[in-house]
């Protein structure tokens, strides 16, 4: 794939969608794509499908144009082209999956190493920092507006952990510099969407830290939020952002695990690694996926059983790593 406009050709209707529970990279890439195509191809029908409009990301231009599950039409619309962004498998598109199934052509743009290559065209770059970084390379630089730059910067910032994660490269920093030169409020974007927390978010974070447990001589740290606690605080899944990353920076920890109970004995699990353990491999084993150092999956059972199953795989990798070093 060379440039985005080269793959559009004669398609008159285009759908854009990202994964369920959209994060900064998903939200930013979808709106950056929407704005880019809308300004260069004003005669086309272009729609964005996302599960929700995340309030903290709603400052991005055209966030009010997003079609959510609540606004979904009774009959599945048919598009000439469906563009999937930042989504490792089509079932992760949630309510937008039927839209993909009805589309004449599917283009899959992503950076997850566990991507299942479900498109007619797959542009998956596993060592890229973010889908937004990939999109930048597919766009004509002189067509990138300040608003598009804001969306791309948001995605890069969130998937690199504000340029702290190992996926950050020289290219990543050069792209970020280009976007900053567009006059975007880069410091405000970082503070408002990455660091700033509500009182409830801080309470949940504090509770998770206080109730965390250490395993394998402190090499693994795990914590959990159950349904009852979420209801008590009136919290949503977005209020849990950043918890697993805070657990990860605990001294001597190799892997952090955060489990969020979504139904009785059903958990959404997030894992973060500090380098030795490939958590994507573990997540994929349990039906999930992600990156080498950041991955997730869904699991069923008692919380302690979930953790024990994960820790068994982590222990194996740590032991193998130790044997290789010796």
UniProtKB/TrEMBL annotation:
Signal peptide stretch: none
Superkingdom field: Bacteria
Annotated ranges, domain DDH: 14-156
Parts of the chain that traverse the membrane: none
GO molecular function terms listed in the Swiss-Prot or TrEMBL record: nucleic acid binding
DHHA1 domain location: 232-311
SUPFAM superfamilies xref list: DHH phosphoesterases (SSF64182)
Gene3D superfamilies documented for this protein: 3.10.310.30, inorganic pyrophosphatase (n-terminal core)
Pfam families tied to this protein: DHH (PF01368), DHHA1 (PF02272)
Name of the protein in question: Bifunctional oligoribonuclease/PAP phosphatase NrnA
Source organism per UniProt: Velocimicrobium porci
Lineage: Bacteria, Bacillati, Bacillota, Clostridia, Lachnospirales
């Amino acid at each position: 794939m060379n440039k985005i406009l080269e793959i559009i050709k004669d398609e008159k209707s285009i759908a854009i969608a990202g994964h369920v529970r959209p994060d900064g990279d998903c939200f930013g890439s979808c709106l950056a794509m929407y704005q880019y195509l809308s300004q260069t191809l004003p005669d086309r029908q272009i729609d964005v499908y996302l599960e929700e409009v995340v309030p903290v990301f709603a400052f991005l231009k055209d966030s009010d144009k997003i079609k959510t599950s609540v606004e979904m039409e009774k009959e599945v619309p048919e598009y000439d082209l469906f563009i999937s962004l930042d989504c490792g498998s089509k079932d992760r598109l949630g309510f937008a999956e039927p839209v993909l199934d009805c589309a004449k052509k599917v283009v899959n743009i992503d950076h997850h190493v566990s991507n299942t290559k479900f498109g007619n065209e797959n542009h998956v770059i596993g060592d890229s920092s973010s889908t937004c970084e990939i999109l930048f390379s597919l766009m004509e630089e002189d067509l990138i507006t300040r608003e598009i730059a804001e969306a791309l910067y948001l995605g890069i910032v969130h998937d690199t952990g504000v340029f702290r994660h190992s996926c950050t490269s020289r290219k990543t920093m050069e792209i970020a510099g280009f976007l900053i030169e567009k006059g975007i409020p880069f410091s405000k974007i970082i503070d408002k969407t990455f660091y700033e927390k509500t009182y409830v978010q801080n309470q949940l974070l504090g509770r998770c830290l206080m109730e965390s447990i250490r395993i394998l001589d402190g090499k693994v740290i795990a914590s959990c939020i159950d349904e009852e606690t979420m209801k008590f605080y009136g919290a949503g899944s977005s209020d849990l952002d950043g918890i697993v990353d805070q657990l990860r920076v605990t001294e001597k920890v190799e892997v952090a695990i955060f489990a969020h109970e979504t139904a009785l004995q059903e958990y959404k699990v997030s894992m973060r690694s500090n380098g030795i353990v490939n958590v994507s491999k573990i997540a994929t084993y349990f039906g999930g996926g992600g990156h080498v150092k950041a991955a997730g999956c869904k699991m069923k059972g008692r919380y302690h059983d979930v953790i024990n199953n994960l820790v068994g795989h982590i222990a194996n990798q740590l032991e193998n790593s130790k044997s290789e070093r010796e």
